[in-house]
Amino acid sequence: MDYTDRLLGLLPGSRRTPGLKDLLSAAGAYLPADQVERIRQAAEFGAEAHRGQKRKTGEPYIAHPVAAAEILAELRVDADTIVAAILHDVIEDTPIAKEELAARFGAPVAELVDGVTKLDQIQFKSREEAQAESFRKMLLAMVRDLRVILVKLADRLHNMRTIEGMSTVRRRAIARETLDIYAPLAERLGLYAMKLELEDLGFRALYPQRYRVLEKALKRARGNQREFLTRIATQLAEALKRAGIDAEVDAREKHLYSIYRKMLRKRVALNEIIDVYGLRVIVEGPDACYRALGVVHAAFRPMPGRFKDYVAIPRVNGYQSLHTTLFGPNGLPIEAQIRTRDMHLVAESGIAAHWKYKAGEPGSGAGPAQAREWLTNLVAMQESGSSEEFLESVRVDLYPDKVYVFTPKGRILRLPRNATVVDFAYAVHTDVGNRCVAAKIDRRLAPLRTELRNGQTVEIITSPGAIPNPAWVNFVVTAKARAAIRQYLKGLRRSDAIELGQRLINQSLAELRLSLSDITPMGLAATASELGMADADELFEKVGLGERLAPLIAHRLGSSATAAAGAEGDEDAAGAPPAPLAIAGTEGMLVTYGRCCYPVPGDPIMAFLTVGRGITVHREECANVEDYRRHPEKWLSVTWAPDGARQFVSGLRLEVANRVGVLAAVAAAIAGTNTNIDNVELHERDSETSELMFEVRVRDRRHLAQVMRVVRRMPDVLRLSRTLATRSRDE
User: Does 216 lie in the same domain as 200?
Assistant: First the structure.
């Protein structure tokens, strides 16, 4: 007997370290003999590849992948998935390459293993970034082949079963990740039995003392309730039989972690959680579900407002069942679930219950349509930003949906709890979200940030010229909406940066008596290449974002002109002041106005170049100007361009007599000049006077002077001046 045979033979057949015999027995119950032989060969290959490696628990490493494979065999997945589970750590932990796996076990197996493999070979800035990037890679591999997540979930489940070998710190970190990501992911894909075990193991590892206390308390209360529930189940079974409905009625115990979460959510003690047990009724067909519901409600009075029909409107993961809460004897609430056998299979096994892969067609198997639809959105999500943003988006999107709303044509959309009108618009289509300007809820106009409720009909009003509002990111809750808004703003920011960069370089070239029109495309491309940039647009973008200084770029570009023209330009430009950059107030995201001094057209201004943010405009007398003059290379000479269309925020500080109605009188006087008030604050200085701080919108300095003249004439106004910001400063 060689090493491999001895190792495989030594694997005990317990639940924690299942042996090869257990795996082959589980696979042989539904797979043909040749596929079972492939699995045996994969186990031998994996044992040889992991020779000498041991787990933290001290057992041979091959015990872990074989155990993960048995978990999948119990779900009756295809042979490729089981083989991939056996080999899922081979690429990561051994010298064997993906190409060798493909040659020995086929390309589909190699792709599955690669999709599960973490990115340990790449250097990341932090453990969080590495974890997020690994998760991004795994989920994007899921889009191509759903079996990737089955392997990963089986891997995580067995790791949680044997987590005792880890240190306390690592155990808590893995448990937290399991509860936050993997258990909700299993639920989203309909793998309910796996989700329950992941939650139970994660709860026990993260909060061992709470787990023990709760488990002990439930054991004490279990005896009487279980006997009581068995009698009710018998009564219901007899009532269903008399009604001619073939049904199985089982008493079930509520999941320990769900009880704990309910205690936290409702802030109640365990003895106040009375619906610890429930009933499950399994019938033959969907019509029998509703007939059985009538029998159940006839036997026990239903609790108002506690009925949910997931048969007609399934959950996002494909789950279907009727849920109702009954008043049992002595008024004790009992939760009952009514479903068909097929629905029960989907509820327990999710996408695995639908697994029908054809030989050689790894993409042909499809889980529930809802799960597949969610997965296809992952590609759009991953374009929204960093790996950490992607992980957070998926984390938000994993939890169960709570709101069901309708389009005007009657289509049902499932959205998370607290979803807004904007979330609904993006759920309909990304273009609808990008162009939405208003909405009607049940035929009445409603703000875009309105939170939706079950049963509402939502109509989105769009405009061809509309664009997403950056403020939407602050209140949308779906990952799709957040990703689409960020992606659009990222593109808008880039176009703004390119335009601003061109203007800044043109301004600096003017000192050399040149302009961008004098620089050949080859000269632009050569300069960009010298600086390690792909093209001229990237060069302009870096300048617009403040990551490169326009004067230095201009001198590089100027050297590409003729020597004579360059010399003449240098000589003529000597001592010439830089041409001011014209600011119209409509430059987009890359030009902002200092909240420290509130510049408005007509004020003498300067601009400071901030890395990653473009330019910030200040009044010349602003106190911050002195701070920034330590970096003269980042200051720009700017002037106002004629443009009366935009309004600017300015600040006013008033000292007024402290009498009733003075605030209303001042606000009315300002409004009388056709001026909008953005913000107002009141500070009482003493019993005689108060200080009022206004933010008003004006066209220019002349408009502001008009407002100040009107306010200054008021008898209760003792002092008036332009003021600093009432909000936090930009710089």
Answer: no
- Of the candidates 487, 488, 310, 482, the residue with the CA atom closest to the CA atom of residue 397: 482
* Alpha helix stretches (DSSP H) within 629-700: 662-671
Rounded Cα gap, residues 603 and 355, in angstroms: 70
The one-letter amino acid code at 231 reads R
Q: What are the strands, taking DSSP E only, across 208-317?
A: 248-253, 277-283, 308-309
Token readout for 148 is 């990737």
DSSP E strands, 6-90: none
* Cα angle for residues 32, 36, 41 (degrees, 5° grid): 150
Run of H or E including 719: strand 717-722
579 pLDDT band (50/70/90 cuts)? Answer: low
Please indicate, yes or no, whether residues 63 and 139 belong to a single structural domain of this protein: yes
- Give per-residue pLDDT as tens, 453-508: 877 889 999 988 788 887 788 789 887 888 888 777 777 677 777 887 888 888 77
Q: What is the DSSP string of 323-340?
A: EEEEE-GGG-EEEEEEEE
Instruction: Please say whether the beta carbons of 442 and 456 come within 8 A.
Output: yes
Question: What's 706's domain CATH number?
Answer: 3.30.70.260
What's the rounded Cα separation, in Å, for the pair 715 and 713? 6
Q: Are 20 and 28 in contact (CB under 8 A)?
A: no
Question: Which of 44, 48, 92, 499 is an active site residue?
Answer: 92
Alpha-carbon distance values, 435 to 75, 407, 425, 429, 465 (Å): 45, 17, 9, 10, 7
Enumerate the β-bridge partners of residue 635: 608
92 is catalytic: yes
What are the pLDDT digits (tens) for 229-242? 778 888 889 999 99
Q: Are residues 193 and 258 in the same domain?
A: no
Would you call 627 a catalytic residue per the annotation? no
Note whether residue 457 is domain-resident. no
- pLDDT above 90 as % of the chain: 16
**Residue 436 parent element (H or E):** strand 436-441
- Structural Rg of the chain based on CA atoms: 34
Residue 362, domain member (yes or no):
no
Q: Kindly report the CATH number assigned to the domain that includes residue 195.
A: 1.10.3210.10
Active-site position among 48, 93, 180, 538:
93
Which of residues 208, 234, 269 is at a domain's end? Answer: 208
Range of the domain at 105: 3-208
For residues 543-553, give the mean pLDDT: 74
Element (H, E) at 638: strand 635-640
Asked whether residue 45 falls in the same domain as residue 126, the answer is yes
Is 90 exceeded by the pLDDT of residue 594? no
Number of domains in the chain: 4
More confident position, 319 or 588: 319
Residue count (the chain): 731
Do residues 224 and 197 share a domain?
no
Residue 311 · residue 321 · CB < 8 Å: yes
Task: Calculate what percentage of the chain has a pLDDT beyond 70.
Answer: 76
C-alpha–C-alpha distance, residues 269 and 260, integer Å? 10
Q: Nearest-CA neighbor of 478 among 411, 398, 410? A: 398
| The predicted structure's pLDDT at residue 416 | 80
